[in-house]
Amino acid sequence: MTTIYVTRHGQTEWNLEGRMQGREDSPLTPLGKDQARWLGDRLREVPFSSIHTSSSGRAKQTANWIKGERELPIIESDRWKEIHLGPWEGKLKEEIEGEHNEKFRHFWEHPQLYSPDDGESFQDVMERAGSEIEKLARLSNGEPVLLVTHAVVLKALMAYVLDKPLEDFWSGAYMHSTSLTIIEKVDGSWKVKLEGDTSHHRQVD
């Protein structure tokens, strides 16, 4: 059996400002650092063999805050980065909605219809995340590992392991900052043990 603990990075400055991040980056807020520490406290007794993280700064910061004083390798990969949003990256959501109303609606309400001018589709992200999670399961040798990634990648993982159609991409738990999701691979099949749990949060973001 393989157990993978998955979380989203802590709250960032751009999260607060309402900007779409994608492959661009912004630092964790003080609350974002606290969120990562709270999750680290919750997971203190889990004997992780390693932490895997998106190479984005906000994810790496989160991974280090979760790790704390533990002697654990942190393995970075571009393959765990957030969906590539092209020209939307760094822009305010209301600005994007005003300039690209139909595409913006498709992004949030009809993901199967979302077709970016430049960047990744949800299908692209689901295929990328699915390929990487299978690789991570093989490399884990049955030991628990922690993965720090992003909201859309997390939803893509859920779509992959639960075999959801694209139109149901956003269904299920909302992936709050440092929410905890636990997936297991048993006898070749994926199971979701926990999805988007924030019971370790001591303050709402």
Concise synopsis of the structure shown:
This protein is of the alpha/beta class. The protein has helices at residues 13-17, 30-42, 57-67, 93-99, 101-109, 122-139, 151-161; strands at residues 2-8, 50-54, 74-77, 145-149, 180-186, 189-197.
List the defining traits of the structure above:
Rossmann fold, alpha/beta
Average pLDDT for all residues: 97
List the strand order in the largest sheet: 3-2-4-1-5-6
Helix content: 25-40%
Query: Main sheet?
Result: 6 strands, mixed
Give the helix/strand layout.
Layout: E1 2-8, H1 13-17, H2 30-42, E2 50-54, H3 57-67, E3 74-77, H4 93-99, H5 101-109, H6 122-139, E4 145-149, H7 151-161, E5 180-186, E6 189-197
Parallel strand pairs: 1-4, 2-3, 2-4
Antiparallel strand pairs: 1-5, 5-6
Task: Provide a descriptive summary of the structure in words.
This protein is of the alpha/beta class and 205 residues long. The protein has a single domain (2-84, 120-197), classed as Phosphoglycerate mutase-like (Rossmann fold, 3-Layer(aba) Sandwich). Helices cover 36% and strands 18% of the residues. A six-stranded mixed beta sheet has the order 3-2-4-1-5-6, with helices on both faces. Strand 2 (50-54), helix 3 (57-67) and strand 3 (74-77) form a beta-alpha-beta unit. The termini are far apart.
